[in-house]
Amino acid sequence: MRHASVIGAGPNGLAAAVVLARAGLKVQVFEAEAQVGGAARTMELTLPGFRHDFGSAIHPMGAGSPFFSSLPLADHGLQWVHGTAPLAHPLEDGTAVTLEHSLRDQATELGEDGREWREMMEPLAANWRDFVVDALGPPMRLPRRPVMMARFGRLAIQPARTLAKRFRGERARALWAGLAGHSFLSLDAGLSSATGLVLGAAAHAVGWPVARGGSQAIADALMSLLAQLGGTVETGRKVGSLDQIEAGDGPVLCDLTPRQLLGVAGERLQKTYRKAMEDFRYGPGAFKIDYALSEPIPWRARECSRSLTVHLGGTLEEIARSEDALSRGQIAEQPFVLVAQPTLFDRTRAPEGKHVAWAYCHVPNGSRVDMTSRIEAQLERFAPGFRDCVLARQVLAPEKLEAMDANLVGGDVNGGELSMRQFLLRPALGNYYTGTKNLYVCSASTPPGGGVHGMCGYHAAQMALRRM
Fold first, then answer.
1. Rounded to two decimals, what is the model's pTM?
2. Phi/psi zone of residue 134: left (φ > 0), alpha (ψ -120 to 50 degrees), beta?
3. Where residue 64 sits, what CATH number does that domain have?
4. Is residue 406 part of a domain?
5. Cys bridge to 110: 114, 312, 418, 459, which one at CB 3.0-4.6 A?
């Protein structure tokens, strides 16, 4: 039996391990932390009994992942929990615009812009299974649905502010700006529409759910399936060099970003590839706060209580100012804030009658500016009395995020900057293969990038199997 090694037990590392084990290889996974999951871990970060998602909490791409959907993860404990609506976006007038599951309901919600929204999202949502395979695949390959992907590409490459001109009303423009804001790009930058289109289509196709009990359930289900297939995971085992593992003639897959790969592989990397890793650009960071709450967030707009996710940013113009400041390495006084409130629909995460929530904003990579007061000002703006509900908070600035997960370099949760060059050559020509025999990269620094979907690990493992 051929052996394979995987360094890193985040969702991509575990996905790669499952692919290799299903192909009959004897797989061993090495994880530096005491807990598997990487940025998809769940921990008691504030008070006993309050279970917080360390990183990703809302999982449209997990629920919509072609690879995860092909696995019997429900048999291993994974359950998706949905809100009544995928997303709410409160406005200054005390109302909120919502992103609905149904395209018909969405058209009603947006009124004069409903038809335009439907024309933009329906081709992707209605053909989600084909679309997501192409959208989450390596960029340099013939798509399954070339006409649909050409249409998507024509829209995705545009700046989000340009695409927003299709809408006449403030509500639709604000909703669109929040979706595009997930890209961490200026809304005037090319490709800033791509993330918004994918997330919008996902909402109508598969929703924006949480994993019951926390994001840890995703990693635990993958690990349980891997164990069933004969694979093993060793936690608390930091691999500082490839010389520390006995890989034999089998493949080694690294759920590591370029910086960690350089430390582990060292001189084994070819000079040109090593230079590409040194030149790899990381994206902006996240500044995140976890809250233990005495009651649900007291939103002024009642629609916000229908959703697991809330975007705080007001108008398109305000969100654009926030993300434009970020693109210039500056701090926004009124940052675009993303909020997750899982205990509204999953009561397993907190003691009876209590709640958890997290909120984060975008900051320059490695920023040391304390954003707590700015984030909480946005929360108070749309939920007066929020601070009175706070029992405890845990602040995770970029430096602390990286200390808890080395892949989050400078707080970058997407595995690297989303520029055109790094969209096509991520992290270098060849995407997953390093040019060194049997050595591959399978982290979010490879296509299709960040998101708990496992597709980076899936594609890297498939390439390794082909090359064997």
1. 0.97
2. alpha
3. 3.50.50.60
4. no
5. 114
